[in-house]
Design goal:
Length: about 170
C-alpha cells in the first residue's frame, strides 16, 4: 500500500507491505521491518530493530496529532494542492508556537517559566495521559511568551498549555 501525507509541511511518501506478522516499510530511501500492534483505538506499538515505540494518535478535523517518545507531530493527508500546502505553512507555524497536549490529560510538571529562553528539544511540560507521562518538547528556539495552565490542571488537546515566541535573529 502506498501513502502520501504531510508532516510539518513536507510531503512524505510511504510504501508498506505485510510480510507474515511483520510489515516492510519504505520511506525516505530507507527500509524498515516493523511489528505493529494496536493497543487501543488511540495507541499503537511499533517494534523496529528490537526498539519498541508507543505511539499516541488523536484525529482532528485537520489531520492527526501524533506523539512518540515526547515528540509531537501533526500529519495531514496529502489531497491538498501545492497552494493549499503553502497556505497551511502559517497554520503549522502557529501550531508550533501554541503548545497543546496530543490527548486530554493532567499537567504533572511545568519545567519552564514565562519569559524564559528555550531551545529545540527542551522539555517544556509533562502531561499524564492514559497512565503515561508524556514530555512535550520545544520544536523551536525562542522564549515562553505565556503559560495558560498550572501543575495539576486537567487539559485537553483543543486548548494550549502555553504559547511560545520564536527567536528572530
Amino acid at each position: 500500500m502506498e501513502y502520501e501525507f504531510i508532516v510539518d509541511n513536507e510531503l512524505k511518501k510511504l510504501n508498506m507491505e505485510q510480510q507474515g506478522q511483520s510489515h516492510s516499510i519504505h520511506m525516505d530511501g530507507h527500509e524498515y521491518l516493523a511489528d505493529i500492534k494496536s493497543l487501543s483505538p488511540h495507541i499503537i506499538s511499533i517494534s523496529i530493530k528490537d526498539r519498541m515505540y508507543k505511539i499516541f494518535i488523536v484525529r482532528s478535523k485537520e489531520g492527526f496529532h501524533i506523539q512518540c517518545q515526547g515528540d509531537s507531530y501533526f500529519i495531514q493527508e496529502s489531497d491538498q494542492d501545492e497552494g493549499e500546502i503553502q497556505s497551511s505553512e502559517e497554520k503549522s507555524r502557529k501550531d508550533m508556537l501554541n503548545i497543546k497536549p496530543t490527548m486530554p490529560g493532567k499537567v504533572i510538571k511545568i519545567q519552564v517559566n514565562e519569559k524564559e529562553e528555550i531551545k529545540v528539544g527542551q522539555t517544556l511540560v509533562i502531561v499524564e495521559a492514559m497512565k503515561m507521562e508524556n514530555e512535550i518538547k520545544s520544536s523551536i528556539n525562542g522564549t515562553v511568551k505565556k503559560i495558560f495552565a498550572a501543575e495539576g490542571d486537567l487539559v485537553d488537546s483543543d486548548k494550549p498549555i502555553m504559547e511560545l515566541e520564536e527567536k528572530t535573529e
